Every structure is written in C-alpha cells, then in structure tokens.
Input
Amino acid sequence: MKKRLFALALSGAMLIGLLAGCGGGGTSGTPAPGTAAPETGAPETTAPAADGSVYYLNFKPEQDEQWQALAEAYTAETGVPVTVVTAASGQYETQLMAEMGKSEAPTLFQVNGPVGLANWKDYCYDLSGSALYGELTSDDFALKDADAVYGIAYVIETYGIIVNKALLEQAGHSMDEITDFAALKAVAEDITARKDELGFSAFTSAGMDGSSDWRFKTHLANLPIYYEYEAEGVHADAINGTYLDNYRAIWDLYINNATCAPAELSAKTGDDAVAEFVNGQAVFYQNGTWAYGDVSSLGDENLDMLPIYIGVDGEENQGLCTGSENYWCVNSQADPADIQATLDFLYWVVTSETGTTSLADDMGFVCPFRSAKPSTNYLVGIADQYIAAGKKSVDWCFPTMPSEEWKNGVGSALTAYAADQTDANWDGVVSAFVDGWATEYQLSQG
Amino acid sequence: MKSKRRSFANSPFWTALMTVVCVIYLYPIFMVFMNSLKVETAITTSGAFTLPTADTFAGLSNYANAIGAKGFLVSFGYTAFITVSSVVLILICCSMCAWYITRVNSAASKVMYYLCVFSMVVPFQMVMFTLSSLADKLRLNTPWNICIIYLGFGAGLAVFMFTGFMKTIPVEIEEAAMIDGCNPIQTYFKVVFPILRPTMVSVGILEAMWVWNDYLLPTLVLDIKKYRTISMLIQYFRGSYGRVEMGPMMACIMLTIFPIVVVYLLGQKHIIKGVVAGAVKG
Amino acid sequence: MEKALKRYFPIFVLPTLAAFIIGFLIPFVQGLYLSFCRFTTVGNAQVVGIGNYLKAFADSTFTYSFWFTVLFAAVSTVVINVLAFLVALLLTRAIKGTNVFRTIFFMPNLIGGIVLGYIWQILINCVLSLAGKPLLALNTAAGYWGLIILMAWQQIGYMMIIYIAGLQSVPGDLLEAAQIDGATSWQTLWKIKIPMVMSSITICVFLTLTNSFKLFDQNLALTKGEPSHTTEMLAYNIYNTFYARSGPQWKGIGQAKAVIFFVLVVAIGLIQLRATRSREVQQ
Output
C-alpha cells in the first residue's frame, strides 16, 4: 500500500511536469525509488571532451544518410568519433534493449514520450543544466520529471489530410468549403458517386500492413483520445471511449470512399497509398510533414493539408495535429567523458551552421531550438499557416497510449471491421480500444 | 503383369514428373533472380512473378548497388572469416577433446561427455541473454574472436560426433605409436588425426552450415556498430531505410546463395555424406 | 597410454572446456538462476521466486504461441516426413537423373533461415495479392501455411537423404524373397520397407519435430509474428519478451519462458525417441 501511495505521489509529480500538451504522466510505470534521482555532477564545458565518443542509436530510418554525414562532419571538425546506427524500422525498442545491455551502450538514444521514458528513466541523464536545454525555445518540448529534464524533443511534426488541390478543384470543390466533418463527408461522398466519371477516388487506400497501419491505429486514434482528454482532462490509466463513434465515422469515410473496396485494404501497403496519391488516383491522403519527400513530385502548388475532422462540436477551429514523439535522451550510465562528448555533439548539431542546415534542409525538420533554420519542407509551411490563422493545433496524445501491444490490438480490430462493417465488429474495435487500454496499462505497471 | 509394372516404375514418366517437380522446387530462387534484375519501381508485391521486360530490366545495377553502397562485400568477408575460424577451431579443439574423453576413462571425461550431449538439446533462447552479456563483458564481440563463442556453443555436437567415431577406432595403433616414443600430441597429429578425416569433413560441414547461416547469435553478440554478417545485413535491409530497397536486397540474396550453391556443387558427395552421418548419430 | 594422456589435459581438453564454460555452462546456469529474478542486466538481479513462471503462464501470447507451435510442429512433421519419404522411394528406383534430382532437392537446406524467409515472403505475398487475399502481415492462416511450406521446402531434401540411405540399406534378398512370395509393391512397402527403415523414421521425425519447435529465423523473416502475434512461435515469443517488451519485469519473464521452453524441447525429444525406438525392428 505504501509503495502504491508513493507511486501515486510520483505520478502526480510527473503530471505537473508534463502538463504541457496532453502528454499525461499517469503512466509513469514503476518508479523505482532512489534510481530516479537526477544525476548531476558532470561539469558543463563547451570544449569537446578529448577522450569521449558518441554513439547515437537513431530512430528515423529515412534520415539515416543525413545523420551519417553529420557525424562524419563533426568528427572531421573536432576529432571526436561519432557512430550513428539506425535501427531497422519497427525494431527500435528491440535494438535499444539489446544495445543497452552491452558495455559500449548508446550514449544517445530516443524515447517517444512519457511512456517510453518510464521504461528508460534509469538511463536518462538529467539535461536540465545542459547547454542543449538552454537552446530549447519552449519547455513544452522538454520531457520532464519534477525538475529533471530527461528528454528533449528535436523535431516537431504535423499531420493531417494531405490534399491534391488540383484534383479537388477538378471535382468541382475547393479547400474553403471543407471546414468540418459534415463538409468533408459531403465532398468525399460526392467524389465517390462520380468516381467513374472523374477517374479518381476521394481517399487513398488505408493499407493496414505494418508500413501504413500506424496512420490509423495511432495517428487517427489520436483524435478521439485528444477530445476525450480535452473534455475530461488527461487520464492515461483508462480511456472511456467517449468519441469512438466519431472515430467510427471517420474510419467509415476513409474506407468506403477509397480507391479500393474495404475488404481489400488488408492487401494494401503504405507504398500503395503513396503511389495512388502521387499518380492522381485519390484526392486525400492522411499523413504528415515527414511524407513530403514522397508526395513532392505532385508540385507544391497542388498540395495542401486539411485537419482531420471527426465531427466534434467546435471543430471549425481545429487545426492540424502537431507534436513530437522523438525525444533525445543521453545515457546516464555511460562514461562521463562520453556523456560530455554527446552533449557537445548535440549542442553542435543544434547551433552550428552545418548542423542546423542539415536539420532544416536535408532532413526537413522543424526544430524547437533557438538557432534552428526554417524548414524547406512545403508541408511545414502549410502547418504554419494554420497556426497563423489562429487554428488550435491538436496535440499528439499517442505518447500516452499504454503500449505497442495496444496499438496492434486496435489495428487488428480495425482491419476486421473494414472487411465486414458490422456493429459486432465495431464492438471489437471498442473493446480493443477501451478494455485493451486498461489491460495494457495494468501490465505496464508490472 | 509383374514385369509390366516394373517397367512402369522405371519408365521415363517418373523422370518427367520429377523434372517438373524439381523445376517448381527451384522456382523461388529463380523468381528472386528475375526480380534482382528489375529496376526498383518494377518490383511490386503482385508483380513478383513477371519477368523483366526491356523497360524494367536493370542489368546488374542492383548487384553493383548491393556490393558497392550496401557493404555486401564487407559483410561477406566477416561472415567468411567467422565461419572459417570457428570451424577450424571447433574441428581441432573438439577432436582433441573427444580423443581425451574416449581414451581417458575418468569421471571428468564422463561428466564432460554428458554435458556435451546435454548442450546439444538446449535451445539457444535459453542462454541467449546471459551469453550475449557474458560475451560483451569478455569483449568477445568482434568477428576476430567470436569463434570462441562458437567453439563453446558448438562443442556439444562436435565432441559427440567425434567420440562416436573414436570409439570405433582400435586403440592399438595409438598405443604402438606411444611405445615408439611419440608423446600424446605427436600421436594425435600423426596417427589419430588422419584417421579422423572423414568425420572431420562431416562435422566441418554441419558446423559451417550452422555458423554461416546463423542470425541470432551474431546479432546479439557482435558489435553492431561495426560489424554485420550477411544474415544481419539482409535483415537490416528489410527493416531499414523507411521503404525497403527491394532491388539491392534481391541482389544480396542471390549473392548469398551463389557461393553456397557453388560450394555445394563442388563438394556435394561429402556434404550429403556428412549430413547423413551427422543425422544418424545425432 | 592413459596416464601419459592425462598429463596433457591442459592441451587436449582445456581449450574446449574453457570455451564450453564461457559459451554454454555459465550462461546456462545464470539463465536458470535469472529465471527466478527480476533484472534488466545480469548484474542487477533480485530474486523474486517463482513469480516469473506464474506470469509466463498467465501471458496469453505465450500460451497462444505454445499451441501455435504445437500445431505447426505436428503438421510440418507429418508433411515433411511423408513427402520426403515419397521422394526417397521414387529416387531409389532406377529412374534416370536421380543424382540431379537429389542435388536439387537438397539445395534449399543450405540456405539460411533469414534468406529463406524473405524469399518466401515475396513469393507468398505475390500469390496472395494476385488472389486478392490479405497479405502475410494480416493473414494468420497464410502465415501458418506459409511457415509450413517454407519448412517443407527447406527440410524435405535433408530428410530425403536420410530416407534414401535407409532404403538403400534394406537387403535386396529380402525384397526379392517378398516378390517371389507374391507380395504386391504396396505390401512390400508396408511390411518390409517401412519396418526396415524405422530407425531412419525415428531420426527424421525427431529432427523435424525439434527443428519445428526451435524455429526462429524463418519465423522472424517470414511473418514477424504478425498479425498481432498470431503467427508467433515459442522461440520468437521468448525473443520478443526479452527484447521487444520494455519494462523491468519482462526480462525475468522471458528467462522463465526460456526455461519452460528448454524443458519442453528436452521432454519432447525423450518421449519421441522412446515411442519410436520401441517400434523399431531388431536388426
């Protein structure tokens, strides 16, 4: 009982630290007393440590080459060896787990938010005194626990519905008329009705294999969670599913107005969806700023983005979904010289000309650092326009999702439902969503 | 009647049937080969069976890419080195150990023998975590010394097979050599070693097949920052780089299979014999 | 001689023994111990008793993967052995080209599990997409049968070689005597050939069964356990428990699962050996 109370108290402390956005702290895992004490002590100097080295286990496969180049540039400049290893996609946790057990463990790794942090807190160096933290533009982008800063977001990403404007206009509609779910539905269904005449469909196929299913089981599922948190406050221990009917409505819209029959979705992949969108077979494609490289061949003038409306009151003011699930953490159990080398390297990445150019131009990142350059990513520009127009961005709540297991459960249920859209199958989704959440949350508390 | 059935049993019909079956049997490899010659955009999920056309033919560019940019040759070198060093080490150390076990009748020998037999049935998952952390602590995490791990984990089968064979060799020859003034080391290399040659080939082939194709042990033990074996490289292909680069991957698969097929065709007789010997004893 | 040899213990045995201790004995004993602990590294283990075992049995993915593995092992053992035996029967007849066929059938055996897995993933996904069926990542049934086809493709050649060796050792005069007595080829097969190659059958069944139970690489490469763990076999489930689940409790559970798995593999081997040995013909 005592332990329980302690956990509660600690969760509370975390909540306070994490109230920014809806990255709820209720999932603090099993806080091990004592081990959570922030480590301070390594002196902060800006001069590169002479004998340290950096080992970065990178999460984003699409930016592997750029990181390798950046590492090389840094080594050439300072002589500090930097190794970047990119985990195979979908294998990050596996690889991190295996590597952390080794004596030459990564000095720099990533967590995806509070849930990830709970598992790795013992390995997270307190960055609160670091020069890197000083560069951060807002505390919203720090992953905090009480006063300690355990993770720093390095890229802000935005997703929504990417639109092929040319096709939309060809169908006789415009961006301006779509301001809520009802309008989106009307446009989509109109396009579907005239599918043969127009020669294209409303949505790309919502492929449910591993290369694409996260768009729905994670990113789309974010919206009902976001609105529930908005209405009732962040409560990551259990979800009520208040907005699951809206989730069903948008999912129905996606799958019934797509380039293929709903039952065929399970045979589609992420690559198929990209191909359909780029080849002008569909108007709408749910994805984010990171997908710019895939869709840029359509030409910037033909691209736009829409918020994902799900039919909630007041959604005319809803913006795109913006957030981060990429937090840098420095391995506190690494050699002090390596920790210092890693901090120096990161500071260099976010402040130097070479580093900021690479982040903005080569990787197309929007970074929350003072010296960050504007991203050349066109979709990022669209996202900025939404914010400038006073729309309220939807926070990324999926870092509070209890586990990968939960996402997979929802994904399977969605696939089953797509194949046969009955109420019974939807109950399966609801059960995976609500009951699965409770179960997985319990398990994660171990 | 009987002679008729006989002739049917040996008729060209069966040869024809088996030919068809064999062609089907080889088709998967042929399919990968065809796809490895296509340009990236032509390798699609549903188009795996179509042959490359003039438009989609990529020549050997995928192979060039795999060898050049993807580090195939380096991985190939590591894998080859690990395989050769491990197999040589296993053959020498285990055969010596087996000789001692068969010829010295002590409790230690018995314990050692039964431990070896026991280790053969233990699945790798049982020791996967502890072995990799021990290997890391002892710095046995490079291609140059991972053979020690392979010797340890592969000793069971090798010692078992060698002792099985050794029991059938008459001890008299060795004793004669000893009486002529050879010390045990000389006796071993001059007398026992040559007799063991056929078993060496069998054990060598079995262990080589295991080490060459092994995935999990090198993945967990090797320092992935620097070294990747072929199996690891192909696995990395699949998962990394956001979208899978199918062309170079298919080329890699072909490049992996090719040397195996060549070695197999050259040493077919020994390989098949070795496998039978290993299986019958195992 | 024994005495002289004994003095050479450090040269003859020590290298192997040392490697064996590092590569097997210490990890094995540590593994046993850690299955009763909560740990994230070998160094920070705290004994928690049998809790890990209870949690392992309570983990539905583990029990599921157990039954999946049993079902897989049963079917693949039958399929592989029946087909391998048939091919061996055909190839022991005096038909043309037996050597070439033998070479071809054996070849897939030399290819590593990861590579095999990917080859078949491409092939099966192509068939599925042409048929308009869900791809492997979403299709438990296809994943199951895919694994069986893959295993059959890989192992038939190996088992065939063993059966051929067995069939060739059946004495010719025995077959001739049967023919003179008017036995049909069907009767010869059941009454003479099969009982005479019973030891080969024992070996092959034993090998396929343990291979199926220990299957890992192919499972990882072909299906990755998808969709949502429904094609996950025991070895892969254990691996995932260790390395894919985060949280300090999972390593201990994974190690407990590994011990259970180990006991299972040993038990199956023993039972199976005893069962078939008893039906062998005394030669």
